[in-house]
Amino acid sequence: MKEFEYVITDPVGIHARPAGNLVKEIKNYADSKISITKGEKTVDGLRLMAVMGLGAKQGDTVKFTVEGGDEDAVVEALSAWLKENL
């Protein structure tokens, strides 16, 4: 299991479109289970409404947990995607 944190830089946070794009990106890593945590709430990264329900806004820190598959490669790829898109 690998974990990393990311601070949301997008001015509008994770609303509908960015959440949809994030879920699409996470689907590319079918061999891994990816969870997203903000505060006390943890959700499955494949569930769009749950990801939107985190209410992550600009400046919020979210934690990603990756289990299974090639965890190191998934963390690296997902971190790069987040920096480009959120």
Structure characterization notes:
It is a single chain. By secondary structure, the chain is α+β, with helices and mostly antiparallel strands. It has one domain: Histidine-containing Protein, Chain: A, CATH 3.30.1340.10. Helices cover about 40% and strands about 25% of the residues. The chain has helices spanning about 15-25, 50-55, 70-85; strands spanning about 1-5, 35-40, 40-45, 60-65. The protein has a four-stranded antiparallel sheet, with helices on one face. A hairpin with a 2-residue loop joins strand 2 and strand 3 (about 40-45). Helix 1 runs antiparallel to helix 3. The longest helix is centred in the last third of the chain and has 15 residues, at about 70-85. The protein is globular, with a radius of gyration of 11 Å. The termini are far apart.
Topology of this protein?
Blueprint: E1 2-7, H1 16-27, E2 33-38, E3 41-44, H2 48-53, E4 61-67, H3 71-85
Antiparallel strand pairs: 1-4, 2-3, 2-4
Index terms:
86 residues; Histidine-containing Protein, Chain: A; four-stranded antiparallel β-sheet; 4 strands
* Main beta sheet strand tally, sense and closure: 4 strands, antiparallel
Second-tier CATH architecture = 2-Layer Sandwich
Strand content: 25-35%
- Give the number of domains: 1
Strand tally: 4
Helix content: 25-40%
What structural category characterises the helix and strand content? alpha+beta
Query: Are there runs of 5+ residues with pLDDT below 50, and where?
Result: none
Question: What value does the Rg take, in angstroms?
Answer: 11 Å
Number of helices: 3
